[in-house]
Amino acid sequence: MTELLTAKQVQKLLNVDRTTIYRMLKDGRLEGIKVGSHWRFRQEEIDKLLSLTHDAEVVDSAPTEILPLHCIQSIQNVFSQIAEVGAVVTDMEGQPLSEMSHCSRFCELIQDSPAGHQACLDSWKELAQERDTRPIFHSCHAGLRYARGFIMVEDKPSAMIVAGQFYLNQPDPVERDREISRLAEEYGIDRAELLKAAADLPVLDERKQAKIATWIAEVAETFGDISTERAEMLRRLKVISEMSSIHKS
Questions:
Q1: Which CATH entry fits the domain spanning 63-230: 3.30.450, 3.90.550, 2.60.40, 1.10.3470?
Q2: φ, ψ (nearest 5 deg) of residue 123
Q3: What is the pTM for the complete model shown?
Q4: Are 45 and 31 spatial neighbours (Cβ–Cβ below 8 Å)?
Q5: Under-50 pLDDT residues of the chain
């Protein structure tokens, strides 16, 4: 004999409120049996809906589908202004998903060069491949320092926020000039202009370094929380779509 469930039991199983149950009955997404003045629901029908919920995976979707980029861009801009560092969100291949915030003139010159831009992408990709989840400072191809925080969606790294364009220590002038000359020649950039831009790059003291490491971890966690909620919403929409298809067929 088929087991019948009450509306309250179905609410608990599907994690929805009573109003949603009746809305699903009305639009055909849920079938029920009227027993007197109460609704009852077949167990196999609810099991079918639950299996759809478990099968509706969205975490493997492209980051652009999961991450609310407009919202993330706004938060990234505020973080970048407060921290006074450049910041960008990328996918796990180092490809930018957001616009760069608070970009230094030095990095603008580098990224205006096709070869320099590609070198930046390669540096970001290397950061993504580093599996230590802590926001450790790394050197990029141009000798500047960066840290990154993984944006975790349901315990899986989906993207990352990269913050950088600074020095940890005051560079040796001779070494810096030699490195900038190399970059200017390699990327076809005016040496004098690149030297001038390099003079404005910040040097972070230990206190600011510690703050950046803390802030980037917190921002990444916030982005992960926002994206996880969006992933859950997309999953529910997919379930609703599949439920509607079942009852139309």
A1: 3.30.450
A2: -65, -40
A3: 0.71
A4: yes
A5: 54-59, 246-247, 249
